[in-house]
């Protein structure tokens, strides 16, 4: 089964956000070494614009899919949360990109105090959990797929229990009708 276009576009947008974060890190590294980062700034700026356009496309596709009932309302809400997370990432990346003017003294002093107090300069440097540390992109995707399969199995079990309870409720109702 081919992946759904919306999910493919979402994955592409997430990958673009990751690329932008890496380029911002590279630009910051160049600035620390005194090298020119003008070319990277242009690339980052256009990539941020491209990410914003992709997010807008995802919003439009989602709105269309929900309004034509191609997906359920629950799935629409889930996807809306994904889009909101992407928007947050975009804002963080934008802030990180515009944060290029940090004085070197602030950066040096932040090493001893635990970081710049204005906020996290790179949103992708958050602490990684033990279960995902050291895993590559494909490994993470496989782990995510395994978790989804476990959740599906749990939902199947829950579904069978609820079906059984429904039948019991119907039988109880029939018995009450007979007794009355």
Explain how this protein is built.
The structure is a single chain. The longest helix has 43 residues, at 137-179. The model is unreliable at 101-106 and 116-120 (pLDDT under 50). The chain has two domains: 1-102, Up-down Bundle (Methane Monooxygenase Hydroxylase, Chain G, domain 1); 136-179. The protein contains five helices and no strands. Helix content is 77%, strand content 0%. It has helices at residues 5-33, 38-67, 73-98, 104-113, 137-179. Helix 1 packs parallel to helix 3. With 180 residues, it is mainly alpha-helical.
> What pattern of helices and strands is seen along the backbone?
HHHHH
- CATH architecture verdict of the largest domain: Up-down Bundle
Instruction: Give the tally of structural domains.
Output: 2
CATH third-tier fold name of the largest domain:
Methane Monooxygenase Hydroxylase, Chain G, domain 1
- Portion in strands: under 5%
Count of DSSP strands:
0
Q: What is the structural class?
A: mainly alpha
Unreliable runs? 101-106, 116-120
Under the CATH scheme, which class of the largest domain? Mainly Alpha
Radius of gyration: 24 Å
Rounded to the nearest angstrom, the distance between the terminal CA atoms is 53 Å
Tally of helical runs: 5
Shape: elongated
Give helix % range.
over 70%
Concise summary:
By secondary structure, the protein is mostly helical. The protein is built from 5 helices and no strands.
